[in-house]
Amino acid sequence: MEYRQLGKSGLKVPELCFGAGTFGGSSNEFFKAWGATADIDEARKLVDICMESGINFFDTADIYSDGQSEEVLGKAIDHLNREDVLISTKATFRLGKGPNDVGSSRYHLIQSAERSLKRLGTDYIDVYHLHGFDATSPVEETLRALDDLVREGKVRYIACSNFSGWHLMKSLSVSERYGWSRYVGHQAYYSLLNREFEWELMPLGIDQGVGTLVWSPLGWGRLTGKLRRGAPAPEQSRLNSKLASDAGPQVSEEHLYKIVDAIDEIAKETGKTVPQISLNWLLRRPTISTLIIGARNEEQLRQNIAATGWELTKEQVAKLDAASEVPLTYPYWHQRQFQERNPRAV
Length: 346
Hints:
Helix content is 39%, strand content 14%. It is α/β, with parallel strands linked by helices. α3 links the parallel β4 and β5 (86-91). The longest helix has 18 residues, at 253-270. The chain is globular.
């Protein structure tokens, strides 16, 4: 397993991170569609497989199964030395019915961090994310609260998720102005199916030294190898839930099948699977620090781990690039015409 710097920080993380969104039984349809389970023994088994393969980084969030994901993850790693494990969790989204049970205010972030620490059974969080941008809370208030959590030792590093380019750049500027902790990572959606991340967020990450932690690298379950032209829909998939499907990235069937056709050609050349090729393509992109992979079971986890340790050829990467290319929106289509002044990130 390769280890990479998380942005401009000194922290090294494995190129694959285990996403614990499947931990924690839930009556919530959204997380049930992920295959959520509260079985501690099964969770511990998956954790041990990760550790054996060099994946010591585990990602969760306070809202996953209403806090149960953090609780199950905490119990699943309690047999390990805490210093051997990296934990990432998140706050900002609503968890509670009160007026202050949502957002990135000082009140909510400090309360959320303390509750996450309790559920995880630890006294510090290695990487603490804002799950999304909160336009109702002053950026200065948010970053000062996060800096206090770092100074108190409750958080080691801070990161954000699902920010736009200006959200992230403004935040970095405020941190620099006051000498506060800065975001070292941005957890963002990026896959062969949806490459909008490359247009602005990737160049920003290169320029500012912000590492990317990719969520849903298999395109919201579409690049598992189960979806092909003319084939029936898989019996078990989050896409079978309209709620879960609508909440994720939208992709036309023709765009999906065009990419899967290209992957299938490369699969014949390499002997690798659709998800392994999809993950390997991402690992070669700029700013990528880690890919967050999930798994319903041991077989799926081992298959995803096998995406590492080899590389696609330049010709194979070019084939995937061509198949997944989509028309740019403004101003990116205009800038693309002047690459002498605006060189492409990839």
